[in-house]
Amino acid sequence: MPPTNQSVIAGPSRRPPSKAQTKIPPEEEWDDLEMPSGLDTIWDSIEEAKRDVKIFLLDRRESWAPSNDSNKSRMRLHCLRDDICNFYIRVCESKKKGGCHVSSYRPHTCPRSVHHKFKSRNSAWYIEHLLERDVIRNRQILPKDMQQRASIYHGIPNLLYMPAYRARERIIQGMDGDEGESFQLFPDYIRRLKGVDKEAYAYYHINGDTKRFEASVFVLGLVRQAIRYIRPIVGLDGTHTRSKYRMTLLTCVGIDGNSQILPLAWALVPIENERWWTWFLDHIRKAFTLTLYEEDEVPLDCISGRGGFLISDRDKGLFNGVETTFPEAIHSMCCQHLSENIHKKFGKEARQLFWPIARANTVKGLNEAIKAMKEYMPIAERYLKDIGYKNFTFLAGVARYGIDTNNFTESLNSIWSEIRNLPPLQMLDHIYRWMMNTFYDRYRTKNDPGNDRLTNKAWKSYNFRLENSRGYVVHPSSDTKYIVETPRGHVRNVLLPEENELDPDGDGDGRCSCNQYQEYEGACSHAIACILHIGKDPIDYISGYYTRATYRETYRTPIAPLILEDLVPDKSHPPDHNRASISVSPNRKR
């Protein structure tokens, strides 16, 4: 029967009334009834017994008032209207049976209106019991959604916002433990990580004055070795986490031979600024300064020393950090962020004229695109000139592999979106598991039919270029120099490497006036036409980064399992709690 809107009259808190006091007719007297299901349990502790008994009553939409003689070892409850109701329940410890049990129970005989608007039905601890499964499924569930579910499924129509919020936080803390205390486990977590991965680079930073945790950085040992097999291009980005302390996650990301992202390093820092970007990049340089090959005498800086480049947005702190830590590196700017800035400053038309500049692959095409921008809006062209065309176009002079935006790094933020909801230690553990699963799955990737040498992505690109090359007319000058005419009337100069100059894994110093050969370090459609003309295999002229053998070598060694159980805390303190009050929207866009 649904509750009515009659008022509740609370009776005095006292011992259960006697039969004489309540004047019950003799024919309606009874002894304690048989225990209903839910009250016939033996509990290990009195706290569990008290909680479960109260939940039992609340689930039946019943109320109670505590007796004065309840204490730590027993609980006695009676009705709010004990002048008209015989309700009584006693929970105590049992020396004979062991544990705790309900020793006496008499049900309510009062009207249902007595229980209406009983405050405990809106308490956080009871809402925690009702909606625990919902929070476990979606730890980002909003309190207003919890209010709706409590009303629809549990008959609590007027649940307040704060009890719902507190219930969610209680459930999350029960799953994850105390987030502040988890920072004390970082030193032991790092020791355990190095125990299963001897080559791992991991470090945590404690403020010397306050003894508070500030930052930590991680590079897996297998990733330090795998960097030799991936393209020399690195993306840098930072994103917010969404747990209590609102730490910032900095990431360094590479791209493997199958055009899949591979996280190289990640760090938790208090804020994204020049100081912490420099700190992160300095550790990256130390982690990836190593001897790649046996014939190398001096360790190589694998981030900027392999002829590649770094790409990021124009965040000032990041930009200065790269200049400080990797002064010799080619630092390319994300064209997507540049286009958005141009759109905001100069309008949609200027943005449309920007992309032909960013993606021009010849000097002639670049000059024509710059001229068009200058004629339409000279101030926008001066803006790009001040930034420097070599910082975002092919004039950088290195192979960019078709990468002119930082989207591949942003995509990692999206992939790790749910992981970023977790407290720091659990987040790092889930990142480690993600890496472990990724290495396992990618090593077992099967080749597409007919493909036995290249990665699947490279195979599709090769077949597309091979199909385009069939209509080209080749005019040889020598075994390495050619002129190629296309059906559209384009004329290209192609220079193939000498056969003895080909790298063991393919490629070589080949060039084409379309610049795509140099851009991707693999034969373009014009070069493929020339290679077929001399009866060679075009795959021999494609960089070893794209071969299946190199791809499998990247993920050959599995990542060892690592668990968080039984970590030993140290005496450090959590980060400055004042940062925990900073609210960051999950949907914030940079």
Any overview of this molecule?
With 590 residues, the protein is α+β, with helices and mostly antiparallel strands. It has 5 domains: 19-119, no CATH class; 123-176; 179-334 and 398-448, no CATH class; 335-391, no CATH class; 456-546, no CATH class. The chain is built from 20 helices and 17 strands. The protein has helices at residues 19-22, 46-59, 124-137, 143-154, 161-176, 179-182, 186-196, 221-226, 274-287, 316-325, 335-346, 348-358, 363-376, 378-387, 407-415, 424-443, 456-468, 516-520, 525-533, 548-554, and strands at 65-66, 74-78, 88-93, 100-106, 201-206, 213-219, 233-240, 248-255, 261-269, 289-290, 300-301, 309-312, 330-333, 473-476, 481-485, 491-495, 511-512. The strands form 4 sheets. A 7-stranded mixed β-sheet has the order 5-6-9-8-7-12-13, sandwiched between helices. A 4-stranded antiparallel β-sheet has the order 1-2-3-4, covered by helices on one side. The protein has a 4-stranded antiparallel β-sheet with strand order 14-15-16-17. α4 (143-154) packs across α5 (161-176) and α12 runs antiparallel to α13 (363-376). It is elongated and about 110 Å long. The two termini are 53 Å apart. 36% of the residues are buried.
Task: Describe the structure in brief.
The chain is an alpha+beta fold and 590 residues long. The chain is 36% helix and 15% strand. It is built from 20 helices and 17 strands.
Helices, by number, come to 20
Radius of gyration: 34 Å
Large-scale geometry: elongated
Structural class: alpha+beta
Largest sheet: spatial strand order: 5-6-9-8-7-12-13
Distance between the termini: 53 Å
The helicity comes to 25-40%
**What ranges have pLDDT less than 50 throughout 5 or more consecutive residues?**
1-32, 579-590
Tell me the strand percentage band: 5-15%
**How many E strands?**
17
Average of pLDDT: 85
How many discrete domains? 5
Main sheet, how many strands, which sense, barrel?
7 strands, mixed
